[in-house]
Amino acid sequence: MARKKIGMVFPGPGLKKAATGIQGLDEITGGGLPQGRPTLICGSAGCGKTLLAMEFLVRGSQQYNEPGVFVAFEENAEELAKNVASLGFDLADLARKKKLLVDYVYIERSEIQETGEYDLEGLFIRLDHAIRSIGAKRVVLDTIESLFSGLPNENILRAELRRLFRWLKDKGVTAIITAESGDGKLTRHGLEEYVADCVIMLDHRVTGQISTRRMRIVKYRGSVHGTNEYPFLIDESGITVMPITSVNLDHPASTERISTGVPRLDIMLGGKGFYRGSSMLVSGTAGTGKTSVALHLAEATCRRGEKCLFLASEESKNQVIRNGRSIGIDLEKWVKKGLLRFHSSRPTFYGLEMHLVSIHKIVNEMSPKVVIFDPISNLTAIGSTAEIQNMLMRLLDFLKSRGTTSLCTSLTHGSGPIEMTEVWISSIMDTWLLLRDNEYGGERTRMMYILKSRGMAHSNQVREFIITDKGIDLVNVYVGAGTVYTGVARVVQELKEHAEAIARAQESERLKKELDRNRRIMEAKIMELRAEFDSKEEGLKNEILLREAKEKVVAADRGIIAKARKAEGLRS
Amino acid sequence: MKKKASIKRAKKSATKKKPFKKSTAASSDVWNLRLYVAGQTPKSVMALTNLKKLCEEHLKGKYTLDVIDLLQKPQLAKGDQILAIPTLVRKLPVPIRKIIGDLSNTERVLVGLDLIASP
Q1: Is B100 inside any structural domain?
Q2: What is the C-alpha separation between A248 and A349, in angstroms, rounded?
Q3: How many domains are there within chain B?
Q4: Separation between Cα atoms, residue A467 and residue A317, nearest integer Å
Q5: On chain A, which terminus has fewer CB atoms closer than 10 Å, C or N?
Q6: Structural domain of residue A384, as residue ranges?
Q7: Looking at A443, A477, A511, which one is the last position of a domain?
Q8: Nearest-5° Cα angle at A187, A182 to A193
Q9: Three-class SS state of A59
């Protein structure tokens, strides 16, 4: 086998390729089928060979302007047209436009008698005529092996087939030859011997009662190619192949923040909500309000006028809408506006890969800004933890590469530490919101905690929240001495606090009054003292005056006496 | 060499087993035969020679033979579902019968045309 290469593959130099136009197939073949050469598509009955071949022709004629000839050995033109009409292919219309020609080659062994030498020139002439009449660039032979049952001489047939494939190459048409595999071989009659350029194997496997179609490129001469088995899906828009490893870890990281739809949760997430294009996990035990958080996000997204895809794996669309209404979220109007789309499917409906493929398809179709997956935990019904992790990783990487924000909810089991049970998934999530309930004092209260949120400062608090008919509301956290109270206990605690506060207020009021009273007493005393002092002061002042007056009188008297005695002392 | 031998064998078997048990189709009065060839290949020429001889021997006066060269009229291959060359088609009497090959085995041609019952 050729080189092994994991991841995206690129066309080898020199080899021209004919794009198939089939979603994903061109990616894993690095551009399409080898141009001008035959490609063998083999697989068991009912695995989609004819459909793949037909889509190759239809897309070729519609998208690449390469008309095609479909040589049908098993079904006639009408049957074929009916079979592919469900995929939206209008063969009659393409035939009218001379873009596609179906030639039904029928061979009935019982009608034929073999008498001597012959060759299959008739088939060559028919094919040549068909190719010429519409200028075909693409040819499908479906299923040429049926000639083995129609023609008796296998030696002639083998020689002619070898010549036919050579002839197709010389014609320069890109051809698909389909063949049924069996007996442990690629093809029942060993056609791979003749068609050696490119062999694609289709497979339809049932594991655990769930069937998945897969495709593998067995060989591709002259080109590197993806060697994995790729799951593919057949639905009303044809075939979609899902390249598993084509997503790289190089998606852009946006700094834009978007709201979760719960304002106070946004505050917990650094005040602005989470990053656009990031992934968020909401996990919790049953009934903790995971879906309610998801509904808030859906509402907030639509309110911004952005598209939102809601993947419901447990409830139907109507059920989700009804439940949304009960918490005051009207999703129906967004559905009507075309902003919100639901995709409900039971996980067991098909395999993990098919879920991934179908999600890819829807996302590619509607380009939502936010994708909600509610819940991812019941995928465990159809796959092991490692498989689911692998699938989710690819899904999230795919969404991130498109800048799409995603929210997944996950149901955790009650037993064991919640943080432990989901280690396998949390590593691929950017933000992890943990919801839990707390049983205390005969009631359960809901609590919310941001376990991690990459690239932002987030609250480290366990917050209580309640779900009302107006949605989720975070309750003021009780900041007490060492303990967080929730529910009724919180209310009781708050009342107690309140009473204590009142008591404290009353006490200070009393003290204030006492102070006031003291002040008044003091002031009264001051007044009294002052009054007493005033009266004393007055008395004393009077006496002073009296005494001074007396002194003057005495002095005057003494002068008169001296004058009278004519004393000398008076001169100086 | 090989061709000659087969012609001889054909002659032999045709002459040896003369009293064939006739089938119902053999009693039909209208035989419409069509031989598809692709150019003048040895196989085509051989088939035509063998066929003419056989018709003269067994269906004298009540058959018509069209030889269609698909190289000139490729569109006609579809109608009779021709793959192998040469192919002899018995259009009448119905039902349609096809005989492929150079018609060198006369007995098998006669069985194929339902001129004799299969042994």
Answers
A1: yes
A2: 29
A3: 1
A4: 21
A5: C
A6: 257-477
A7: A477
A8: 150
A9: helix
Please list every residue in chain A whose beta carbon sits closer than 8 Å to the beta carbon of residue B38.
121-122, 125
Instruction: Write the CA distances from A206 to A284, A351, A420, integer angstroms.
Output: 33, 9, 33
Q: Does residue B50 sit within a domain?
A: yes
User: Which helix (DSSP H) or strand (DSSP E) does residue A548 occupy?
Assistant: helix A487-565
This prediction's pTM: 0.66
Which candidate in B34, B72, B90, B100 is best for mutational testing of the A interface (most A CBs within 10 A)? B100
Tell me if chain B has a CB within 8 Å of the CB of A152.
no
| Residues A268, A348 within the same domain | yes
CATH number of the domain within which A39 lies: 3.40.50.300
Shortest Cα–Cα distance, B24 to chain A (Å): 17
Three-state secondary structure string covering A61-94: HHHCCCCEEEEECCCCHHHHHHHHHCCCCCHHHH
CA-based nearest residue in chain B for residue A125: B74
The per-residue pLDDT for range A51-98, each reduced to its tens digit, is 899 999 999 998 999 999 999 988 888 888 888 888 888 888 888 888
Euclidean distance between CA atoms A279 and A283, whole angstroms: 13
Taking CB atoms and an 8 Å limit, are A122 and B38 in contact across chains? yes
State whether B103 and A116 contact (CB < 8 Å). yes
Residue B107, min C-alpha distance to chain A (Å)? 9
Q: What is the CATH number of the domain that holds B35?
A: 3.40.30.10
The DSSP string of A156-203 is HHHHHHHHHHHHHHHHT-EEEEEEE-BTTBSSTT-GGGT--SEEEEEE
Query: Cα separation of A280 and A285, whole Å?
Result: 17
Contacts with A107 from chain B: Cβ below 8 Å: 81, 83
Separate counts of helices (H) and strands (E) for chain B? 3, 4
**Å between A319 CA and nearest CA of chain B:** 58
When divided into structural domains, chain A yields a total of: 2
ipTM exceeds 0.95, yes or no: no
State which residue of chain B sits closest to A128, comparing Cα positions: B74
Interface of A with B in 121-140 (CB under 8 A): 121-123, 125-126, 128-129
| pLDDT tens per residue, range A466-523 | 888 888 888 876 665 556 677 777 778 788 888 889 999 999 999 999 999 999 999 9
